[in-house]
Design goal:
Two copies of one chain form a homodimer. Chain A is of the alpha/beta class. Chain A has seven helices and twelve strands. The first copy, chain A, folds into two domains: 1-91, no CATH class; 98-264, Rossmann fold (3-Layer(aba) Sandwich), CATH 3.40.50.1580. In chain A, 31% of the residues lie in helices and 27% in strands. The termini of chain A are far apart. The interface between A and B is large, with 62 and 62 residues.
C-alpha cells in the first residue's frame, strides 16, 4: 500500500513519522477505560482527531485504551500492531491491565492469566473469517507471567496468582449474572456454571483476553493479561464497592506493572 | 433487589431519582462515538462518574454512546433498558445512528436496516448464555423503517434505502478487509464473499445491529438502525475520505433522525 491510514487511531503512514514517534517503544499497556489511563500518566493524547481511542507515551512506555469487548480491542490491536511494524519497533512486551469478576477469590486480588478460555472453558478463540470459523490459540507467555508473579512479591498489600481467565462476549447473561435486563436461568444454574468454571482452573472473567492472546501470539508479541477482581462472582453479581475502594482496587495492577517496567529498565528502587 | 446499581452508567435506583430524571423520555438515540454525540447536543453529560459511556438528555430525547462492537453495546442496552423500566417510561422508540461500510452503494448513502444478519448471512443473533447457544430474532420494526424512509424524502441531498445489514465481530478479517495486521485470504475470496452478501440483500456492514435488534425485540422497544456508508467495500477497504467529507457524511443520519423526531412531536417546519 502506498499509504496506510490507521483510521480508529487517527494516524497514518503519510501524515505521521511513525518511526520517529514510536520507534523506541518497548512496553505497551492497554486498558479498557481512558480515564483510568489519564490517572496513570498525565500526558497529551496522541489520537487527538478521534474519540475512539486515546494514546499516551512516556519514553518507552505506550498506553492505549481499548474500550469494552473483543471487537473493540481487536480493532485497536490491528492498528497498534501495524503501527509497531511501521515504527520498526522490536522486543515489545504488551500487557493488558484491567478489571474483572473473580471466581472463588478475594476481591482486590490480581489474576495473571496463563491461558484465556471461552464460555465453554475451552482454551481457544473462534475467529470468523469470511464465512469460516478459524480456531486460534489463547495461551499467553509463560515466562512473562512468572516474571510478573515474582514482581508481585514486592507489593504485599494484595494477593496475586496465576490462573485461567474466561473471556465472554456479554457482561450479563454471558457471565451468568442474574441482574441484567434479561435473565433466562436460575441462581442454581448460575452457581453450577461458575463452580464448574472454578474446577477447570478459571479464576476470573473478563471480555478481552482471548482475542488479545490470539492476536499477540500470531504477531509474535510477548503478552500478559493482569486483572484485578472487583467482586467474587460466587457471592454476588453487582459491583457495589464504595468509590474509593473501587479506585484503590483499580490501582493494584498498575502498581504491579509499574514495578515490572522499572525492574526491566533497571530503575527499580524498593522503598 | 433492594438497590440496583447501573454500574457502567454510574447511576443507581437509590442514588438517583430515575423517574424524575428520565420519566418523560420517548426517543433514545444511540451512537458509537461520544464526540459525534456532543456535536449533536451541547449538554451536560449525565454519566459523570464513568468514562465508559456518555449520556445527554434534551426534553424527551435521550442520547447515549455505545462504543464499538456487540459486547460494548449490549452492556449499555442492559443498563439502559433497566433505566427505562425504573423510570416508568412507555412508548419509547430507540434508534441506533451509526457509520458503516456499504456494499454496492454510493458512499454517503443511508441504509435503514430491515433485518440484521450475521457473518453467514443468517437473520439471527447467537447469544451464549451459560454454556448454551441461544438463537435470537434480529428483525427490526417494519413500520418504523418505512416511516424513516418517508422522512428521508425531505432530505434530497443523499440517497436512503432499506436493506439488510451484516453485523460482524471484527472490523478487519471479519469484514473481508485485506488491510489488517493479519490477513489470511485473497482479494478474489474477499470479493466473492462481499458479492454473495450483496445478492442476499445486504447493503452495509457494521458491528452492533444484531444484538441491538435482538435485545430491543425481546424487551418490546420499537427499534431502528440508521447508518451512513463511508465507502463501497466492493471498491476499497480503507476509509480515506477527507475529514470534512467524513464529518459531513456522519451528519446524514442525524439530519434524518432530527426530521423524524420533529415530525413525531408535531414540530417539523420544512424550509
Amino acid at each position: 500500500m502506498d499509504e496506510d491510514i490507521l483510521y480508529h487511531l487517527d494516524l497514518g503512514t503519510k501524515t505521521h513519522n511513525l518511526p520517529a514517534m514510536f520507534g523506541d517503544v518497548k512496553f505497551v499497556c492497554v486498558r479498557g477505560s481512558s480515564n483510568r489511563m489519564k490517572a496513570f500518566e498525565d500526558m497529551q493524547d496522541i489520537c487527538t482527531g478521534t474519540d475512539r481511542y486515546c494514546m499516551y507515551k512516556t519514553g518507552p512506555v505506550l498506553s492505549i485504551n481499548h474500550g469494552m469487548g473483543i471487537p473493540s480491542i481487536s480493532i485497536m490491536l490491528h492498528e497498534l500492531i501495524k503501527l509497531l511494524y511501521y515504527a520498526k519497533c522490536y522486543d515489545v512486551t504488551i500487557i493488558r491491565i484491567g478489571t474483572s469478576g473473580g471466581i472463588g477469590i478475594e476481591p482486590g486480588s490480581i489474576v495473571i492469566t496463563d491461558t484465556a478460555v471461552d464460555s465453554f472453558f475451552k482454551p481457544q478463540f473462534e475467529q470468523i473469517i469470511l464465512d469460516t470459523v478459524v480456531t486460534q490459540n489463547t495461551e499467553l507467555d509463560k515466562e512473562l507471567a512468572e516474571e510478573l508473579l515474582k514482581c508481585s512479591k514486592e507489593v504485599p498489600d494484595f494477593p496475586t496468582l496465576i490462573g485461567h481467565t474466561m473471556c465472554t462476549y456479554d457482561f450479563y447473561e454471558g457471565q451468568g449474572r442474574l441482574d441484567g435486563a434479561l435473565c433466562s436461568f436460575s441462581n442454581e444454574k448460575k452457581l453450577d456454571y461458575l463452580q464448574r468454571a472454578y474446577k477447570t482452573g478459571i479464576r476470573n472473567i473478563e471480555m478481552e483476553s482471548s482475542v488479545f492472546a490470539a492476536m499477540c501470539g500470531l504477531c509474535g508479541l510477548k503478552a500478559a493479561v493482569v486483572c484485578v477482581t472487583l467482586l467474587n462472582r460466587l457471592e454476588c453479581d453487582q459491583i457495589n464497592l464504595p468509590r474509593e475502594v473501587l479506585l484503590e482496587y483499580q490501582q493494584h495492577p498498575q502498581k504491579l506493572i509499574s514495578i515490572f517496567i522499572k525492574k526491566r529498565l533497571g530503575r527499580y528502587n524498593p522503598k
